[in-house]
């Protein structure tokens, strides 16, 4: 088995929500460290919270650890601790080897120096001699695709250019350990693909720690995963697929207050019919039938309203649409003076979406003119479970001959 390059033992870090208090605690901590043996490190004082709590893991050459979790879960703080930018309050970190890091946009760059000068700066911080950096300079500049801007000060770079240069330096300097935060999200599609391919290549000889909100990237690259929640590890292990399922199920926007009516229509209820009611979000296995039940009322003046259900992925990209082209009229359950009430059940057989969270948008249009009457975005979420991690949302069924 290859050597352990990163060893993290019970690392914790607390912050204060109140800036003045945090300054005061800092002064108190310094004086108690100087004059007494007392330490406040493992207790929380008013307004303090654990940004990272009791995190442990080991990473070997050739392994890639994915750090996932909602905004504010503590991922970047953990990366900064690993990169030595923040000191942990508790725990121990052992890093064996050269660390290349791309953490905060522009961090590690001196804004008044040019890109070229920054490459020399960063290279020397990583322990390379001028001669070694000279030898790598052209590869870095070429990889970053920054062109003649390499001799402009970094403060004039766009965010994408900073990421390009940062990644080029971190990746081309042959790190033993590579730490990459969400910053890759800033790069354009081509550069992102280039970075992912480079990480694939580096993984043969490097230990990679990778933060992302893009689960396809995580499942493609990582063989270890930590799901963070309020600083703690909700999952820490090798089952990347399971951790992604748990992450997705926590992501559902069940608490969202939606306006379910307007002057034309009202959505009375919508539910996924074939799932376990115990779950906070309906879960359906890939290739099972997806059954959607809905009840709505529409003003009688619209005699044959059409219902359209659209499915979006968790990045709000449209995936597909179901159109009730025959209209709702055959689904009238009852009526009053003003409204017709409709009750429908629609089944999508063998839903072949890949694993993830999806949401349904409900739309009623007026039949003849196709005029939208009423729309509710993201009215019902559901989760697709699958053992297979597919990147594209839909798998086509084809006959292979
Ligand atoms: N220097 C700081 N002082 C006080 N609180 C901080 C500091 N840095 C981070 N925090 C807080 O610590 C928590 C964890 O932040 P962190 O940036 O690590 O989250 P994250 O998981 O990386 O989130 P995101 O996905 O949004 O990048 C947040 O509540 C954040 O507000």
TrEMBL record:
<keyword id="KW-0067">ATP-binding</keyword>
<protein>
    <submittedName>
        <fullName>ABC transporter ATP-binding protein</fullName>
    </submittedName>
</protein>
<keyword id="KW-0547">Nucleotide-binding</keyword>
<keyword id="KW-0813">Transport</keyword>
<dbReference type="GO" id="GO:0016020">
    <property type="term" value="C:membrane"/>
</dbReference>
<dbReference type="InterPro" id="IPR017871">
    <property type="entry name" value="ABC_transporter-like_CS"/>
</dbReference>
<comment type="similarity">
    <text>Belongs to the ABC transporter superfamily.</text>
</comment>
<feature type="domain" description="ABC transporter">
    <location>
        <begin position="6"/>
        <end position="255"/>
    </location>
</feature>
<dbReference type="GO" id="GO:0005524">
    <property type="term" value="F:ATP binding"/>
</dbReference>
<dbReference type="Pfam" id="PF00005">
    <property type="entry name" value="ABC_tran"/>
</dbReference>
<dbReference type="InterPro" id="IPR003593">
    <property type="entry name" value="AAA+_ATPase"/>
</dbReference>
<dbReference type="InterPro" id="IPR027417">
    <property type="entry name" value="P-loop_NTPase"/>
</dbReference>
<dbReference type="GO" id="GO:0016887">
    <property type="term" value="F:ATP hydrolysis activity"/>
</dbReference>
<dbReference type="InterPro" id="IPR015860">
    <property type="entry name" value="ABC_transpr_TagH-like"/>
</dbReference>
<dbReference type="InterPro" id="IPR050683">
    <property type="entry name" value="Bact_Polysacc_Export_ATP-bd"/>
</dbReference>
<dbReference type="GO" id="GO:0140359">
    <property type="term" value="F:ABC-type transporter activity"/>
</dbReference>
<dbReference type="InterPro" id="IPR003439">
    <property type="entry name" value="ABC_transporter-like_ATP-bd"/>
</dbReference>
């Amino acid at each position: 088995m290859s050597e352990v390059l990163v060893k993290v033992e019970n690392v914790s870090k607390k912050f204060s929500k109140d800036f003045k208090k945090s300054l005061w605690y800092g002064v108190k901590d310094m004086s108690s460290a100087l004059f007494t043996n007392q330490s406040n490190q493992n207790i929380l004082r008013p307004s303090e919270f654990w940004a990272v709590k009791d995190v442990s893991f080991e990473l070997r050459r050739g392994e890639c650890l994915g750090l996932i979790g909602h905004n504010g879960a503590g991922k970047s703080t953990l990366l900064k601790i690993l990169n030595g930018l923040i000191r942990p309050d508790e725990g121990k970190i052992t890093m064996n080897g050269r660390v290349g890091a791309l953490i905060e946009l522009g961090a590690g760059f001196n804004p008044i120096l040019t890109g070229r000068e920054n490459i020399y700066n960063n290279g020397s911080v990583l322990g390379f001699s001028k001669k070694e950096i000279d030898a790598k300079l052209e590869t870095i500049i070429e990889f970053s695709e920054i062109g003649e801007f390499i001799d402009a000060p970094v403060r004039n770079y766009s965010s994408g250019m900073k990421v390009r240069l940062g990644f080029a330096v971190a990746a081309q300097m042959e790190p033993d350990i590579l730490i990459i935060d969400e910053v890759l999200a800033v790069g354009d599609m081509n550069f992102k693909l280039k970075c992912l391919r480079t990480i694939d290549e580096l993984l043969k000889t490097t230990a990679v720690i990778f933060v992302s909100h893009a689960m396809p990237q995580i499942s493609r690259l990582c063989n270890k995963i930590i799901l963070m929640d309020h600083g703690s590890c909700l999952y820490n292990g090798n089952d990347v697929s399971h951790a992604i399922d748990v992450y997705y199920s926590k992501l559902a926007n069940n608490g969202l207050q939606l306006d379910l009516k307007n002057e034309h229509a009202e959505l009375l209820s919508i539910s996924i019919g074939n799932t376990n009611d115990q779950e906070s979000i309906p879960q359906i296995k890939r290739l099972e039938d997806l059954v959607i039940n809905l009840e709505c009322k529409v003003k009688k003046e619209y005699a044959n309203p059409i219902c359209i259900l659209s499915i979006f992925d968790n990045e709000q990209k449209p995936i597909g649409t179901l159109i009730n082209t025959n209209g709702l009229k055959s689904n009238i359950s009852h009526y009053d003076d003003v409204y017709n009430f409709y009750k429908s059940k629609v089944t999508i057989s063998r839903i072949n979406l890949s694993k993830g969270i999806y949401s349904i948008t409900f739309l009623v249009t007026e039949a003849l003119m196709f005029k939208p009457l009423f729309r509710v975005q993201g009215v019902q979420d559901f989760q697709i479970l699958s053992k297979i991690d597919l990147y594209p949302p839909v798998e086509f069924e084809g006959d292979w001959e």
